[in-house]
Design goal:
Structural class: mainly alpha
Radius of gyration: 16 Å
Strand content: under 5%
Largest sheet: none
Shape: globular
Order of helices and strands: HHHHH
Number of domains: 2
Helix content: over 70%
């Protein structure tokens, strides 16, 4: 029988709920909320698939109501092509860098992006 740590299950559910609420209100950023919270409790090799799976499912759920304008399609295609090309490089870099350094880099990126968004005029 598999032993379940219910604290970690509750933590994962709470982080997913908080990230979902943030994503629902802003339209993006669920992974930016969830990953820094989970990285302190789970190994990085588990956090990335958990966060990406939840984000993928949330994106599919929200996509059913999307109406893409014709002028937005080229931008979407460029993003799709760029992400398809750069994903293998990201996986390679993630395998080569020490997880502790990757956590520091991710934390710094989240901090600076949050600061950037906070300082934008509204």
């Amino acid at each position: 029988m598999i032993a379940v740590d219910w604290f970690l299950v509750a933590l994962l559910a709470a982080c997913a709920f908080l990230a979902g609420l943030f994503r629902r209100l802003s339209g993006f950023g669920g992974a930016m909320v969830m990953a820094p919270l989970l990285i302190g409790f789970f190994p990085l090799v588990y956090v990335i698939p958990i966060v990406m799976t939840i984000e993928l499912l949330a994106g599919i759920w929200l996509a059913k109501n999307w109406k893409v304008e014709k002028e937005d399609r080229p931008r979407i295609y460029r993003l799709l092509i760029a992400s398809t090309i750069t994903l293998p490089f990201g996986i390679y870099i993630g395998e080569q860098i020490d997880p502790q350094h990757l956590k520091i880099i991710a934390s710094i990126a989240v901090f600076w992006f949050s600061l950037f968004l906070l300082l934008q005029p509204h």
